[in-house]
Amino acid sequence: MKALVLGAGVTGLAAAYFLARDGHAVTVLDRRSGVALESSHANGGQLSYSYVAPLADPGVIRKLPGWLTDRDSPVRFRPRLDPAQWAWGMRFLAACNARTADATTRRLLRLSFLSRDLTRDAIEREGIACDFRRAGKLVVHADPAALDAARRLVDLQRSLGSEQRALTRDECLSAEPSLAGIAHRLAGGILTPGEDAAECRLFCAGLEQAMRGGNLGVDFRFGADARQILAVGGRVIGVATEAGVIEADAVVVAMGAGSARLLAPLGLRPPLYPLKGYSLTLPVTEDAAAPRISVTDASRKVVYARLGKTLRVAGMADLVGHDPRFDLSRLDLLVRQAHEAFPRATDWRTLNPWTGLRPATPTALPILGPTRALPNLHLDIGHGALGFTLAMGSGRVVADLLAGRAAPIAMDGLGAA
Ligand SMILES: Cc1cc2nc3c(=O)[nH]c(=O)nc-3n(C[C@H](O)[C@H](O)[C@H](O)COP(=O)(O)OP(=O)(O)OC[C@H]3O[C@@H](n4cnc5c(N)ncnc54)[C@H](O)[C@@H]3O)c2cc1C
What we know:
Elements: E1 2-6, H1 10-21, E2 25-29, E3 46-47, H2 60-69, E4 75-77, H3 83-94, H4 98-126, E5 137-141, H5 144-159, E6 165-168, H6 169-175, E7 188-192, E8 196-197, H7 200-212, E9 219-221, E10 226-232, E11 235-241, E12 244-247, E13 250-253, H8 259-263, E14 273-283, E15 294-297, E16 302-307, E17 310-319, H9 328-341, E18 354-360, E19 367-370, E20 377-381, H10 387-402
Parallel strand pairs: 1-2, 1-13, 2-9, 4-17, 5-15, 13-20
Antiparallel strand pairs: 3-8, 5-7, 6-7, 10-11, 11-12, 14-17, 14-18, 15-16, 16-17, 19-20
Helix pairs in contact: 1-7, 1-10, 4-10
Bound molecules: flavin-adenine dinucleotide.
């Protein structure tokens, strides 16, 4: 079968990889000049298989006034004259209850555990050099109430197969001594030894290389803007680009935050909205002053991962539309927070600042598989804050469904409408 994958971010590449391994003739198309040049470029680098709880949780209602007004809030919502933003916001608020959050966590864990095995397997099988480490992850809490809630979640997650431990403040410091600078702020933390970290951009480059070589022979078309998905008689026949039409037997949409725009003319309106985030890539100048374990500062929603000789710092979730520009007050906040946490980790002369748009759904569940209206149009979208973590599992699911096989995990809550 001729399969056309739209988008060369981590989700599109993962889907293409499994489609090619299934023996399909695969083309990957992207408007940019290479792989991983949008949201998959300099993300947090965390392969966060166990820590998947959604942003939409029952605590949100209490935090909402701060999100709307506080300049230093980790989440920022600036209302715009944009019906898509309001519709997303309403669905997000509707998902902020314990029942939905627990159901989402269960579904995401199923997908993330599948992804963990497939990501590790691909890195090993293809020899992908992507600064991969079984780093473990320590989520530290400043707020004792939030720590209590996190401890309760450990019990739920343990019952679902996650290996996690609650730590006191002192135990957090002995697990990760470089946290000494913010010890006064810490109430305790949750340690997940089995989490990984890697550079997403390099993982994508490795997948591309694997697909170009061997007997996979995937065709990459860069600098090609997909302008319209063409459907005739209830089936997709291909995609129109500036350079002409590319025909295919099946099309997989994996264009991240750009996906909604192309699906709308077909009457498909997945609840996708960009959540803007920022990252820094700091060259580590004092080894012992930078964390070895991946650290998440839960109240600030900032993540730290050691990637090669650098420390990746990522944070902020800003609901401000399709705008990749830097808001300097947000960048400044991230730099201040990173400096406060690990002041001697770098000399602060090189920050490598970056912004990316997380393709987010209100519940945090991605949307995977064939659409009802057009059965040979497949979606692989909506991976939000966990796209690197979930890409390989999602790609496997999409490839299986495209081939007419059963998905390897239960699909409740994950399928396309
Ligand atoms: C600050 C930040 C930190 C993050 N940290 C983590 C983390 O630690 N762990 C984790 O698991 N996830 C993390 N994420 C989320 C993760 O980066 C994303 O979920 C993931 O990169 C989404 O991948 P994607 O392939 O769906 O989208 P993208 O990487 O954005 O790829 C979409 C591709 O589609 C192409 N495209 C779009 N429209 C068109 C068109 N019309 N024609 C042709 N091509 C088109 C784009 O050029 C792009 O290459 C983070 C995100 C951000 C922003």
